[in-house]
Amino acid sequence: MQEMDIIRAILDDRKKTGNTINKVYFAACGGSIAALYPSKYLLEKESVKLNRVGYYSSNEFVLATPSALDKNSLVIACSHQGDTPETVEAIKLAQQRGAATVAFTYKSGSEITEYGDYEIVYDWGPESSPANQKASRSLKLVGSLLKELEDWKHYGSFIEGFDRLDTVVKRASEQLAEYGSEFADANKLEKVIYTVGSGANFGSAYMEDICILKEMQWIHSSSIHSGEFFHGPLEITDTETPFLLMLGDGRTRAMDERVLTFLKRYGRKIYLLDVRDLGISVIDESVVEYFSPLLLNNVVGVLNKALAVAKKHPLSTRRYMWKVSY
Length: 326
Fold this sequence. Notes:
The chain is of the alpha/beta class. The protein has two domains: 150 residues, 3-Layer(aba) Sandwich (Rossmann fold), CATH 3.40.50; 135 residues, Rossmann fold. The protein is built from eleven helices and nine strands. Strand 8, helix 10 and strand 9 form a beta-alpha-beta unit. The radius of gyration is 20 Å and the shape is globular. The two termini are 36 Å apart.
């Protein structure tokens, strides 16, 4: 089923019992929760009717379940292989509470889908369509909810954006090939790299921090919100500390630019991914900020693959994950 069909089916089902959807909760872990960040951000910025938008690491959702979780709730859970224990438990709990549940996964028929009223199987891998990856399909789902619940005025431009996304990503990835090699050569011996972002892009900065730099490259990192940079993190700035700054488009770009100005003055190892330079402006300005992370999630992979080669440290290398009991 397509996202709009799922939303209409959920709302029709709720209507039969005198209920609706007035709360949305996201539950996932690691890269999956980071991929859901733009959807959470979209609902927070655009909805005027939802009572709550919750965003939880799965185990926290289970251990400290929101009291408002009920039959008027939609719970969106994501697990790449469909068997993340905490996420399976979270969506199971949501279903037991009577919430509508949608399970996102790359693996159809996996355990998480047993507790999803609906499942969305997304694209993944080097040949996948960016418009059908998990971050995109989650955005389509909540955009459809906004359209059906609130007649969201930007929905048309929103859908058109997905029609243009694949071309934008392809061209941007090609554009960054040389820069990726430069980034890799400059950072192959670094022990720490900080990521910086804001708005809908903060999930991209977080994903790069925990999933790539820490998990896959064993490089110490921390994701810094551009708005928080000047409230503590600025003190680590010097000419020897690398920063990967993700400049978005939209309302929070000014915060990113402020950080860049400071880093240019006091730092030296500054690496930029600017979505405007990468062609995002072909998407309508009313919704472009929600597409910035979809572009960033893909093009940062150009840097990551080059870094893994330069370090002779494959992205698949692990010490503990899936190897020891934890």
